[in-house]
Amino acid sequence: MFNKILIANRGEIALRIIRTCQEMGIKTVAVYSTADADSLHVKFADEAVCIGPPAGKDSYLKIPSILAAAEITNAEAIHPGYGFLSENAEFSRICGEHDLKFIGPSPESISKMGDKAVAKATMIANNVPVVPGSDGVVESFEEAKKVCDEIGFPVIIKASAGGGGRGMRMVMDAKDLEKNYKMCRQEAETSFNNPAVYIERFVLNPHHVEIQIMADQHGTAVHYGERDCSLQRRHQKVLEESPSPLMTEELRERMGTAAVNAAKAVNYEGAGTVEFLVDDDHNFYFMEMNTRIQVEHPVTEEVTGIDLIEQQIRVAAGEKIEEYPLNFENHAIECRINAEDPEHNFRPSAGKITVFHPPGGHGVRLDTHAYSGYRIPPHYDSMIAKLIVSAPTREDAIKKMKRALKEFVIEGIKTNIPFHIQLMDDENFIKGTFDTKYLEREFKFIPNRN
Predict the structure, then answer these.
(1) For 225, left (φ over 0), alpha (ψ -120 to 50), or beta?
(2) Is 118 inside any structural domain?
(3) Given 103, 124, 143, which residue is the final one in a domain?
(4) What is the tally of structural domains in the chain?
(5) Can 201 be counted among the known catalytic residues?
(6) Residues in contact with 318: Cβ distance below 8 Å, sequence separation at least 6, in sequence order
(7) Per the domain annotation, does 92 fall within a domain?
């Protein structure tokens, strides 16, 4: 087992990793930008190293600075968390060259799954269901037109190196294809320095369901069930839950098997998430694989009782995964608490938190790096907390989440807590009858509602 791990991340996920390391008796090194000097992950790590100014490109994305921090603190491994360098194949490779264990998959696995066109081809070769579409990158408009003639409209054009909802354009009919194809290539070039795009048939009213997998260095891969991530705004998840409202035992078995096959296809190691689109007839299609721990991993932890960060570390240290039957005794829901103003189109709301009263009680978990007096920097993602509840049934979990949200007091900045409170009362959410476009299509946030 490692004696010391450097966490190449910030905020909530860095603090989350530090906590598990402390429970395992592992020393930790935090890295931070000058904007994060007062963050809790800096305060609770055994050591902390400043790696640069606020901008991510000058700190959390600067590989030489992170490697230097690992060297001067004698760290043996690096945990990348999520975001930043967590899915960077080059970073994984460089860590290995410097005798640092990258707590995640190999550079080869990251490369195969990080390029969506390559990932799709890999899935087809390993009998994992995929959405009908191009065989790989679409190099010209003429080729794009031919693909669309074969699979039919509507289609979605996606950046091959994309992620986070960027570099995606839906096209409803042929007259809009050329314009959107060119624009998507331009967006891909600007956002990812790679203009490559591919095309898929657009699945109408899909559910977004992902499978949590874990794979060790000895050829064993297992899954820990699903999370439903269908509630999204602008392709960004806002709430996740497990089990999925549409799941059956038979569907879970099929999807779980497909996810494990996907992991084995690329000799995967560590934690990963295989994301699927699921239609109302329970047909499911591979969408992408995230080669890292997910923001919403606590949902799975609450329904399975497994510490996924601990599992990641043990797998990275060469230990074997213990296989045992899944036992879903609870229902868990996670709300992402963001520093944004829902009354003004969810615009970011950086600034100083003057009052911070966290919710509590049985079955309530709060993962956050924020506190009263903490100043939220404007340089990073707006998420400041994850509120997770678990209860015996979905109905009980919704009631518990509503109570916890009302108990959660944050002043000095705007947050999306009022939005989540209204969502808990929404009839379609309560019934579980929603898809990935539901929030944008039907749900209306009413400002200043009491």
Answers:
(1) left
(2) no
(3) 103
(4) 3
(5) no
(6) 217
(7) yes
